[in-house]
User: Fold these one by one.
Assistant:
Number 1:
Amino acid sequence: MSLSLEQSHDFAADPLDLVEACLESAGWDHERDHDSAVQCIAQTRWGEMGALIASRRQPPGLHFTLTLDLKPTAARAPAIAKLVLMANERLWLGHFDYWIDDNVVLFHHTIPMLDREEPHPGEVRAVLAAATDAVNMFVPAFNFVIWAGKSPEEAMDAAMFETDGEA
């Protein structure tokens, strides 16, 4: 038996209007590319990073992608791929992906839109927060692997290290 993804209603609302309102509220610069995508700039601890939120009709969903500002090297590809797996084990929403051919690390999440016209604003805010938190936590680990030649395990240990109090 096959699951049908056909929607039971027409698209009256534009879910990207709500996305733009959430981006405005979060203080993220953004611009509508065309009818089905919004480009934005995420403010992270490690600088500004480009993101894209695209609306798909089949299957219906809002796809969020944030490109990490990293410069991976081909020689470090296996270590980066392993670190992506290790980081994904610790994420509560979304995931990292490593596109080896393009030599880029991304954060992804899709909000399913089956049988509804737009997401709840809390869903959009949760994705923005999850992406920012993931980038803030794991960019140093990726840089340890890329620039310092550390193993994924050493990089993850350093990223997960938390201090108590202030110095």
Number 2:
Amino acid sequence: MASERRNFVEGGVYHIYNRGNHRARVFYESEDNIFFLMRLYQYCAREGVEVLAYCLMSNHFHLLLRQEAAESISKVMRSLGVSFAKYFNWQYEQVGHVYQGKYGARHIKDDADLANVARYNHQNPASFGDIASYRWTDIRTHLAG
């Protein structure tokens, strides 16, 4: 069965998210997070997508992305999903799906919506204590600016 086609608008900002299959971990070691982020930025640069914010948790991730062309995010997420799944399955000697399904995507309507989603994303690591010291989010960049 074909997956539902997404309708990303040109110039749109989107909250992109997904979690591990069966809610399992997808980020075990720092190298996993580093690989994910390196590929994210590589594919975004290639497709003209700006990373506005990110937060990687042990079993899920949140991204805020702005695209210039209408299908850029689709291309980024397809490349990132395939690349990370191959890496993860090789690294941990597994087969099959890494994520529970196709990533979620929600169009950000306005600046207030953007601020709320960014705040929500950056609150994810609150259970680890000081949010500003959590390594796998870009909150420090936003606090400094």
Number 3:
Amino acid sequence: MLTDKQKIESVIQVYFNCMYESSSEKAHAAFHPDAWISGYLPNGYQHMTVSEFGDFVAAQQPSPKSKGDVARLEIISLEVAGQTAVARVRDAYLGLVFLDTLSFIKLEGQWLILNKLFHVED
């Protein structure tokens, strides 16, 4: 049986794969339907719903995976507190390196990302 941390790590992998594979379906699988994706890109502040984020990643064609981009995902920290958790992850996407803070909620035994706050490192 998987621990909560292992289950959350699996969700983080689905989240990364949604971007790497340009998959809207995987975005919806990783995020709670009411989640927000917020942060700063080089062109300014961004604030998206899960549907908007899913549409954005799906529009990146060909996908980073198809182009042969190197997959970079690093879980920096992961803390579980009851039915909630917070993870800091570093990932490469579309030529940028992001530091993401992902908050999680456990509902009916399933961990989902409730919010993503992102920062571009370079």
Number 4:
Amino acid sequence: MENKIDYSKLEKIKVKTQEELDLIPLDFRGSIIIDGEKNNWIAIKNRYYKSVIISKNSSVKAYGSSYVEAHENSSVRAYGSSYVVAKGNSSVEAYRDSSVEAHENSSVRAYGSSYVV
């Protein structure tokens, strides 16, 4: 499948699937918003220029040095040295060396050497 999107002209892009996220180049300078479905886990394996925003009922697994902001009723499983800012009613499970900053009604379960503020 050929990707014909000119990412240099976009300020933000909304994705719903793993395939759509994987097409975005790592040097994309705009905002990436994940608007997926609950329990349809999307893996964020890279760090982008801006944090990846997880919205609505999306479910995400954050790996490596990825940086995500979880909003509304989203769910995040953070692994490695990923960093998560949790807001709204979002929930986060943090593993290994991941870090979580929790706000509002968000919930966090931390395992291993995770760091929670």
